[in-house]
Amino acid sequence: MDDSVDRHLARWKGYAPFDERTEGIVTRMQFLVRQLHQAKDRALVEVGLQQFEFETLHWLVAHGGRATPSQLAGELKISPAGITGRLDTLEKAGLLRRTRGERDRRRVDVEISDLGRELWTGAQRIRGEVEDGMVGALGVEERDALNALLKRMLLAVEE
């Protein structure tokens, strides 16, 4: 059975100077990543989060639910002014709260709220279902083999 990449390769056969095997692998990876992005975007819409909200909550959850604005700005690679605006929006939506440090009142901590954690968890659940559905086409041994092969490729380009 042909997939969309087989049809893509057939259209370009004889016209483009590429190795069909390499083009097939790379194009399939691109198409799968596109499908993941679209599904993950739908998950955010379903729970009512925007991408920037999810990213901020995701980082907070990954770091124990609490951080300083400067830690968030650094991790999310946005300016201090940008993080202030983002935190204002998230705080008004009830997704996080800012509190003064107990020892140093000049310090501000950002903490995910119960609502923020609930929405983040809902988005993660939906995203996980999409990912499971995608890799579910493979058996356990095939998943292990694919994971090992992708790791080897990634290590090669990360060096």
UniProtKB/TrEMBL annotation:
Name listed for the protein in its UniProt record: MarR family transcriptional regulator
Species of origin: Actinocorallia longicatena
SUPFAM superfamilies: Winged helix' DNA-binding domain (SSF46785)
Keyword Ribonucleoprotein recorded: no
Organism placement in taxonomy: Bacteria, Bacillati, Actinomycetota, Actinomycetes, Streptosporangiales
Source taxon at top rank: Bacteria
Record carries keyword DNA-binding: yes
Record keywords, A-Z: DNA-binding, Transcription, Transcription regulation
PANTHER family according to UniProt: TRANSCRIPTIONAL REGULATOR, MARR, TRANSCRIPTIONAL REPRESSOR OF EMRAB OPERON
PROSITE patterns, alphabetized: HTH_MARR_2
UniProt domain HTH marR-type: residue ranges: 22-155
